[in-house]
Amino acid sequence: MWGLGRARGARVLLRIEDHDAQRSRQEYEHALIEDLAWLGFIPDEPPLTSFRAGLTEYRQSHRGRVYLAAAQQLESAALLYGCDCARTSPYPGTCRSRGLPLDDGVTWRLRIAPGEERFCDLLRGWKTQSPADEHGDIAIRDRLGNWTYQFVASVDDYVQDIDLVIRGEDLIASTGLQIAMARLMGRRTPATFAHHELVMKSPTQKLSKSDGDTGVRDLRAAGWTPARVIGEAARAVGLVEAGRDLEAREVETLFARWQDGGVPSLG
Predict the structure, then answer these.
(1) How far apart are alpha carbons 52 and 159 in whole angstroms?
(2) Is residue 69 part of a domain?
(3) Phi and psi dihedrals of 180, rounded to 5?
(4) What is the three-class DSSP state of 132?
(5) Residue 238 needs a FRET pair 20 to 30 A away by CA distance; which of 73, 174, 182, 202 works?
């Protein structure tokens, strides 16, 4: 992510996505910031010291007024409705005509019109998705009052002027939906997306701390250096053929030939 962004002249914004009050923990944020600093991946905005000092602007848990304003805009356009159905995807629109008020205790859903979204992924080429068929009317706020990932990501990418989104391939299925949602909120030009491969423990299973998989802090405690961790991560996703130490600033060279097309390799 850092290397591709830097190779394209991008500035890196760090956003703490702690919108789910039931799952987020402050210790997770502290560990994330400490790991990034140790590895040498320093965002352009905001300074890591600002998070340590209690900055809230880039924490989704403190941006409720921003999300509420976006929801009110959608409501004024008759695009939202209340829903008391069990979670299902794609959601078929069962509550569209029931007139349930947008109160606490119900899910707030956004009407997604039929149609295709076509976009060019920087790493995977052209993709065509049908958000209405694949997701249905998407929930933007659950019955517990949590804003959903799909909504807050779309809102923040828009209002924070994010024009390049680099993330794992597990989120590529959300891209067409998020482009459609942002357009409904007024975004005229969608962000550019790039979805990279994940470090997997098996062909079908992602790494998970809940499963006891090793994280950066465990490797650090075992005596690994930052360069070794970065080098091993680069090897695991195929950016280098053999393990080698890499500094954070060197990751950019992995994408030095980006303009020529394809994902480069240091070999």
Answers:
(1) 24
(2) yes
(3) -65, -40
(4) helix
(5) 174
